[in-house]
Amino acid sequence: MNRMQKTAWVGFFGSLTSSVLYATAFMLLLLSPAYRRVLCLILCPFLAVLFAALVWSCRKQSPAEPDCDERDSQISRRAVIISFAGLCFLIYISDAIVILWTGVGGSIPTSVLPVIHLGVGLLTATLYYAAMIVFYGKGKKANG
Amino acid sequence: MNRIQKMSWLIVITQGIAVLSAAIAVTVFYYKIGFPRAWAGSAFLAISGFGGLAPVLFRKDPGPVQFDERDVAINSAAVKNGFTASYLLFGSLCMGIWMIKGIRGTIDVNVLPMIWMLAGITCIFVHALSILILYGRDKTSEGETK
Question: Where are the domains of chain A?
Answer without folding.
Answer: 3-59+71-143
